[in-house]
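Query structure, 148 tokens:
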């Protein structure tokens, strides 16, 4: 398996959201520290893998309802096509490494102190699909944001 394919597969749990500053006045969300659980099922790597659970936390705000991780920032991933309609936030997380591109399409529905979401992902190398993944997300607000 090529290194850039492995890198994309290893980044999957962190293909969350990077910094985005959009006006999302319609979204009803309680700003603060949120804990998330992501379950991912990867296909196309040549070996069967069970759903991979990942837990993480992130500080989100009304104007920036995005899940962030240090791994995302290190990987240089970007958010494209973010839209907010009511309590639904949709976007694509795009990570690139050499000729490898991974796009993850998220659909997250927020309530005041909880969220549920789904995602689908396609990883390509030199334009050819290498793997796909699907998954679910759940989240809940746990308190004020931690100082950085």
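Result returned for the query:
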């Amino acid at each position: 398996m090529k290194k850039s394919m492995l890198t994309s597969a290893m980044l999957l749990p962190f293909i969350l959201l990077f910094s985005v500053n959009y006006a999302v006045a319609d979204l009803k969300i309680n700003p603060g520290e949120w804990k998330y659980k992501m379950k991912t099922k990867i296909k196309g790597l040549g070996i069967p893998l069970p759903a991979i659970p990942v837990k993480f936390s992130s500080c989100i705000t009304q104007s920036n309802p995005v899940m962030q991780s240090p791994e995302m920032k290190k990987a240089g991933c970007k958010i494209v096509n973010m839209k907010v309609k009511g309590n639904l936030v949709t976007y694509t997380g795009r990570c690139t490494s050499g000729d490898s591109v991974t796009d993850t399409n998220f659909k997250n529905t927020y309530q005041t102190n909880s969220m549920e979401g789904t995602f689908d992902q396609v990883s390509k190398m030199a334009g050819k699909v290498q793997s796909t993944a699907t998954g679910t997300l759940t989240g809940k607000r746990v308190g004020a944001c931690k100082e950085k």
